[in-house]
Specification:
489 residues, mainly alpha, Neurolysin, domain 3, 2 domains, three-stranded mixed β-sheet, globular, metalloprotease, EC 3.4.17.19, metal-binding, Metal-dependent carboxypeptidase
Length: 489
Amino acid sequence: MSTYDDLMAHERETQALSQVAGRLGWDQETMMPRGAAHQRAEESGAMQAVIHARRTDLRRGEWLAKAEAADDVARAQLRHIRRDYDRLCRVPGDLAVALARLTSRAQGEWAEARANDDVTRFAPVLAEVIALKRQEAAALAEGGDLYDALLEDYEPGMTSALLDEMFAVLRPRLVDLRAQALAGAEAPALAGQYDESAQMRLARDLAQVFGYDGTRGRLDKAVHPFSSGSGDDVRITTRTSTVDPFNCIYSTIHEVGHACYEQAIDPAYALSPLGQGVSMGVHESQSRIYENQLGRSAAFCGWLFKRMQSVFGDIGVADGDAFYRIVNRVHRGYIRTESDEVQYNLHIMLRYDLERALISGDLQAGDLEAAWNDRFEVDFGYPVDRASNGCLQDVHWSVGLFGYFPTYSLGNVYAGCLNKAMQADLPGLEMDLAKGDLSAPTAWLRDKVQRHGGLYEPREVITRACGTEPDAEPLLAYLEQKFAALYPG
């Protein structure tokens, strides 16, 4: 065996162990008995210790120094492994341990603070998390920008300068579009009661319609929907509410987008660095285009309306046009995860600006609530009513995920670019969607994005698929056209 072969054999075993660790997490959120929590923590900790030891194994560095790439695939594999190993080596082991311990405690403090709307309880431990994340960023940045160093974990190659440029285009036009939509009559929400077992049957049908291979996965219920795994074992979860079937429907479609990405990656890349989605932004582009540009389109809503009637009977909606308006209603609210397409990115940009200020030291943890509330009122037009609807609503900062939030908006921007290119390539798309036939768009996405896995860098994936560099204009044009029609000024 060559040095490269030795390295890849090591990576394959490490990736396999990571998949097992992920399965432990899936089980914990879906089927694990409540009394097993303490033992599961021990099991998960043991798995993570083994995986960390393999990722920091000195032989990995020796193999990287000697390995030669015979082709583009091998070069891409080495690029991913070298990036991972270099970053691990830059962060002192005692700092990594301290962060793991602190964020575990901070998550519990956040949950208690959120339940009691008490920011003062969370602020001290958040300040500790920020201090350690700044140390980690300094080790990774090696003199460069601290926030960019953290962003690299989630979106390789992205910088705050590129984000600033993109968000400067997005924010004012989204604020204006939001104001236009809310100036008119608000569309009604769906009314009535919806059987939860029927919702799950519909969710499984929709997963199949959108191309999810149930023979290599499964759909279960969880408190917070997520997708887990890659290759031949990709599992998704959704949630149900008797008064809000859309929560189940669109959570399912969203997670199917993530799962289909993982299922479609070239099988030759399985259990290797290339055998998973290349970045959080590209991953989110798949879930968002499935959920929004396809799943919330007028044509598909017409089909879904009839499907809803067949499952639930009369749902109190006159026709497909009224159903489409309800699905896409713009409404006042505080919660990011419940937001509509128009306002979602405003939530993300608020968090992005604040977390950058926290990492740079321009904003202190004790001042976060006031800064959040001021910015929210400017962008959304009304004050935050309580902390659990404001700066305590998300878990991300308590567990140290600084640099993660902007990838949600990047996913939307990438989805806008992909949608424009897909519409041009598939002139019969609207007719297919009206029949509930998703085969053409999902095949297009498999070919243009999903099959490549981690072969290309994130922005290159989108550029290759669309023929142009990613930018915010296609997303804005799509949103303005769609919601101007729904809410004519």
